[in-house]
Amino acid sequence: MSDETGRNEVFVQSFPDAGSKFQISEGGGDKPVWRRDGKEMFYVSTDGKMMAVTIEAGADRFVAGARQALFDARLEGTQTYDVTADGQRFLIPSLPGSGGASSLTLVVNGLP
Fold first, then answer.
1. Taking a C-beta distance cutoff of 8 angstroms, is the pair 34, 73 a contact?
2. What is the Cα–Cα distance from 75 to 80, expressed in whole angstroms?
3. Are 101 and 91 in contact (CB under 8 A)?
4. Helix, strand, coil proportions of the chain in percent (round to 5)?
5. When you count CB atoms within 10 A of the terminal residue's CB, does the N or C end of the chain come out lower?
């Protein structure tokens, strides 16, 4: 993430050798997280939506797919989130008084 455009945006750049840089977000973006297989990136837009972008990368190419709004995330300040390996589920803590559930059920290996 960088504010070099005047607002926070999400970029991808090779590492450790800095090569081409590709802008992922449009209109502002924050809190980027990769899906574990590297085929998708998630970030939070300035209007609070969880965004997804498919990624195709190889030794000599990088293609970012269309941006897709998934749901309202509304993360506050330094609040973070995580995504499952398949990119299908998100773990987002709810803030006190935000109307979230007052209990948490943890499912391990399909057993509560």
1. no
2. 7
3. no
4. 0, 45, 55
5. C
